[in-house]
Amino acid sequence: MTEESLDWRTYPAGIPLAVLVDRGDVALARGDAVAAGNWYMHAKRRGAPGMREKLAGLVSQLEELLTRGDADAKALLGGVLLDTASNPARVVRLFSEAAEAGVAEGKRGLGFMLNSGAAVQQDPVRANRLFLEAANSGDGYAAYNLAVNYYNGHGVGRNAREFMRWLRCASERGIPEACALLGDKLSAQGHDEEALSWYVRAAESGHAPAMYAAGCWYRDGTGVAAEPVQAVRWFLTMLDRGNANGVHEAILLARQMTEEQVREAGRLAGRESDAVLLMGR
């Protein structure tokens, strides 16, 4: 594989959803099913419609790559089958073979199965070893899983220092769930400005609860001077995830804003028509 085709290994923090899908389509057009599938996986996590169908359409190509011993294809096919709850015993085998070949996604996937006891005897201690290996190879989700286990004391002693260490590691790698949780922890410690920066980073990667938090903080001037344009922007962006919980707040704010401000919020959210509707409420 070319270096370009391996870009999917880095979590695409803040990259627009349409770009993720396009990268998958481009990779597929050049015959790289593994890169295509992983871009589609990123897009699916962000809520893009139709990704399950696109991934299902790659199965035959991935099966062909398996006959050639492609370990990346094994890890990806394991993820596709896991998502469809299809043949969990085979999922374990695929992740195991990919992990043995040194594929970080395989180690993370096998760690997930062992951590939860899905189709295999639960072994959180071994799961944490796999998460650690994958995290040390640059996998952000493995770092997040490791952080959560340190927090819960699952397969390892509870350790607040290690929890924060791996949570920051996952956040710095752009994992939206980690960014949002780090925002929560920093907020609880009174570090509002830094907390908001992590909420925004999570929001930029499609995390709806972080969008709501960012909208409220910009509305109320928490961690930053009050910015109604940014507040309405994030309340409207929640609609991209099918979440309308911020609409009421956006309507109330729009009543206090100029038409230019409301339109700018809509432009930033990519929802100019929805912003126009706010002004008529």
Describe, in short, the structure shown.
The protein is 69% helix and 0% strand. The protein has 281 residues and is an all-alpha fold. It folds into three domains: 1-57, no CATH class; 66-166, Tetratricopeptide repeat domain (Serine Threonine Protein Phosphatase 5, Tetratricopeptide repeat); 178-278, Tetratricopeptide repeat domain (Serine Threonine Protein Phosphatase 5, Tetratricopeptide repeat, Alpha Horseshoe), CATH 1.25.40.10.
Describe this structure in words.
- This protein is mostly helical and 281 residues long.
- It has 17 helices and no strands.
- The protein has helices at residues 17-29, 33-45, 51-56, 59-67, 71-83, 88-100, 104-116, 124-136, 140-152, 160-172, 176-188, 192-204, 208-220, 228-237, 247-254, 259-269, 272-278.
- It folds into three domains: 1-57, no CATH class; 66-166, Alpha Horseshoe (Serine Threonine Protein Phosphatase 5, Tetratricopeptide repeat); 178-278, Alpha Horseshoe (Serine Threonine Protein Phosphatase 5, Tetratricopeptide repeat).
CATH superfamily of the largest domain: Tetratricopeptide repeat domain
Distance between the termini: 53 Å
Q: Please, how many helices? A: 17
Query: What is the 3D form?
Result: globular
Mean pLDDT: 95
Structural class by secondary-structure content: mainly alpha
Segments where pLDDT lies below 50 for 5+ residues?
1-5
Number of domains: 3
Radius of gyration of CA atoms, rounded to a whole number = 21 Å
Helix content: 55-70%
